[in-house]
Amino acid sequence: MGYANLGTCLRDLEAKGWLVRLREPVDANLEAGIIQRRAYRAGGPAILFEQVKGCAFPMVGNLFGTRQRIRHIFRDTLANVERLMRLKADPWPLLKKPWQLASLPASLSHVFPKNVSDGPIMAGEAHLSTLPKLRSWPMDGGAYVTLPQVYTEDPDRPGYGGSNLGMYRVQLDGNEFEPGREVGLHYQIHRGIGPHHAAAIRRGERLPVNVFVGGPPAMTLAAVMPLPEGMPEILFAGLLGGRRVRMVKRPGMLPVLAEADFCLQGYIEPHRTAPEGPFGDHLGYYSLTHDFPVMTVERVLCRPDAVWPFTTVGRPPQEDTVFGEFIHELTGALIPTVFTGVREVHAVDAAGVHPLLLAVGSERYVPYAAARQPQELLTQAMALLGSTQTSLSKYVLIAAAEDSGLLSAHNIPEFLAHVLERIDLSRDLHFVTRTTMDTLDYSGISLNQGSKVIVAAAGEPRRELAARLPEGFAVPEPFGAARVFSAGIVVLQGPPHTAGRDRHDPRLQSLAKALGATEGLSGLPLVVVCDDADFTAADWDNFLWVTFTRSDPATDIYGGASSTHCKHWGCKGPLVIDARLKSYHAPELTPDPKAEARVDALAAPGGPLHGIID
């Protein structure tokens, strides 16, 4: 059976040598986050911070920091969860081997929560002021809960069947929050708590909220699972945890996770918001200060041996990358059952996840046609943008499996080359403008609003990609430092961005016009303009991060010899993406030198973290 609580998990990891204790006093303000990020980067163990300055509670970081460790944590249930996913995706192979299904009924018996009258979480109380004050990055607007499990129930349909468990960051102090009583609850668009909040507003009622911290690791993983709307995460937690989730249920009280380490009990007023942020986020930039719901905290519960688990986010890869990879392992087989004809998807972590989605689809609409072109692929791409978390994607690149039996969305260089060889730039770009986008993406025209583009490719190659610039290639000033990053892709450097938001840049329009008139560029269909060509072209991670986190398709895509015909935009080429950091963009995350130096001392020879972090 899986772990009943966090403590049993930590003791097991320590016994295996996958958790180390740090007895040196550490500040939750910047230092703990730096140590956690370095431990992740080094492929290191989980770290238990026994002495947190100004706080009585220990903290644990990097708990899920490696693929090996996360698979170990769920080792008792993983095989059955994977069987259930395969059974849903394609039942016939398993039905031919029914003995492999023998353990599934026992697993399904763990799905529904178990109501109890008491539990360890009810044994003690704390105060908001006594909790660890984790600040991950220098400009963070306050201390944050970074591994929260925010539990709500549908006011119209109370109970576990209408519940939602989500990981929405919680700001513990700062800004205009009443100290010791109010916290900020930042939930983004397309999150399960939204319909619950909407129902409470319609009914003119407060929305009861519980924020669990710690407890069974399966609850943490369930809180980030991209389950279909209406499928309660708490049920998945029981399946993944290998035991029924014990919930303390008392009259007039929202159920409380019995084995949680902490629980913030409170409510959201129907229309109350206040400034929340900034916060160093997982795209590698700060989320800025915006109004979000305020949670009034009535009680803070804690178990006697409570440990505060945390993570930090930043430019990928980080610990949340491991979550994403693990979730893909579990759910990848289900993709064709959710999106008909789609064989594979890859939300690219290096590009910040939502900014770039690669997909392998099917093109079967006109199998008898002399030449294949994107048709069914467009239906599939629009389905991807129409439901689940893939609807937050900004760039959707989709290609037909029929054109290459070896095509994989997870081999990014080969996938992009495949698309660039086949794309008809006058036909195969389809924009969605003035639409919703990821809350954390500041490349758009306002918070939660920007554009998307579908890039579809099918058929035989239209061009041979070039690996070098044509002889005598030149671009107009102030652009320069051009180089071929990968076959078919040119990176060049531009001046600092100065154009207004929601405006084309005349200098980029002039550049695209000049490139469209330049001979010898047929094999170089993509040009990316950036602030630092050396940095952007240094490796694939840099290229993907810069290109797709710093551009909005409708605003920042230009083309050589472009035109609009009956509202369809296209160009003869090349395609130009303005991936410079915009004048209105959120700041990039940068470390604090003094805090980094203090952590350096812990990692130096003779220090308690020498050989554990870099």
Q: What would a concise description of this structure say?
A:
This protein has 614 residues and is of the alpha+beta class. Helices cover 25% and strands 24% of the residues.
Task: Please write out the topology.
Blueprint lengths: L5 H10 L3 E4 L8 H11 L4 E4 L9 E3 L5 H7 L4 H12 L1 H5 L8 H5 L5 E3 L7 E3 L17 E2 L2 E6 L9 E4 L3 E2 L10 E4 L7 H11 L3 E7 L3 H6 L10 H9 L4 E3 L7 E2 L4 E15 L2 E2 L5 E2 L2 E13 L5 E3 L8 H13 L3 H4 L5 E4 L8 E6 L14 H9 L10 E6 L11 H11 L6 E8 L12 E9 L22 E7 L2 E5 L12 H11 L9 E5 L2 H4 L3 H10 L3 H4 E3 L2 E4 L2 E4 L3 E4 L14 H11 L11
Parallel strand pairs: 1-2, 3-18, 4-12, 20-21, 21-23, 25-26, 26-30
Antiparallel strand pairs: 2-3, 5-17, 6-9, 7-8, 7-11, 9-10, 10-17, 11-14, 12-13, 14-17, 15-16, 19-20, 22-23, 24-25, 27-30, 28-29
Structural overview:
There is one protein chain. This protein is of the alpha+beta class. The strands form 7 sheets. Strands 5, 6, 7, 8, 9, 10, 11, 14 and 17 form a 9-stranded antiparallel sheet that branches. Strands 19-20-21-23-22 form a 5-stranded mixed sheet, sandwiched between helices. The longest helix has 13 residues, at 319-331.
